[in-house]
Amino acid sequence: MLKRLFKNMQKVKVVNACNENLKKIHNRYYKHYKRNVFLIRFLPIFFVAVFNINVIIKVIICGLWFVVSTIFFDHRTIVLFTPTIREWFGVPGSGKTSVAAWLTHYSLSARHNVVSNVEIKGAYRIENNELGVYDMSFNGDGCHLIWDEAGLDFDNRNFKAFSKTEKPRYFATHRHMINRVDVFSQSIDVDKKIRDRVEQNGMFHLLPLGLKGFVMYRKIKKIIVINKDDKQVIDGFEYKGLPRICFTMPVWDSFNTFDMSVCPTKQKVWEKW
Questions:
Q1: Which one, of 263, 250, 208, lies nearest residue 121 by Cα?
Q2: 172 vs 95, 168, 178, 223, 255, CA distance in Å?
Q3: Which of 33, 60, 151, 234 is an S-S bond match for 225, by CB 3.0 to 4.6 Å?
Q4: Average per-residue pLDDT in the chain?
Q5: 44: alpha, beta or left, given left = phi > 0 and alpha = psi -120 to 50?
Q6: Coil/strand/helix, residue 139
Q7: What pTM does this model have?
């Protein structure tokens, strides 16, 4: 009995030591990321300020660089790991899977576990019927869940079927398991139980940019509006802050944009009219 208790205590110590080591790695990575963003945004401004040129020109150059560097390099809102739910939506071809792979790359670089329902290199695989059934705490280290085409699996028009599964339990308890959740859909059509749990600044609109390898997204702020006539609570939305543009081409080899795992599989012999 004592030997078994001693062995269990040793296992707990090993797990705790591993978790502490991983937390140090996470913190070190994000400190470096924040430092790099700070240097990219402010170091050029410092050099421009030193140059002996007209003050107005200095202000214009510094202002333009601050805006450009914010749009292209400041992705702290979506890169830093926090156990929250975020919703992304955009038309087909707007870059949803590219951003999913791009976020996966950053999470894997910080040594986080990534779980995905679509094939992305380095991520663990999960099926639709497994969400909410299995423990996803990864011994206290948590994970980053990527869910593509969420409108098919969490359709708000099929809320009765959704409520009968274990999925609502997962979205209610994701924070207990230290899970960050990013769901991607073609419109705001995921189940209301998920939308209600999206943080105030956790909704993003993906917009086609027309430049190969670049994806633009805008943060959307959720506003609670009370109708004066019937006193009903309504969700309102507005864009917040500058748009952001990320370069996703380096992660294109980690996924297949034409993955057919979510497509119908039944075959038919097609006849011409």
A1: 250
A2: 28, 6, 12, 21, 29
A3: 234
A4: 84
A5: alpha
A6: coil
A7: 0.83
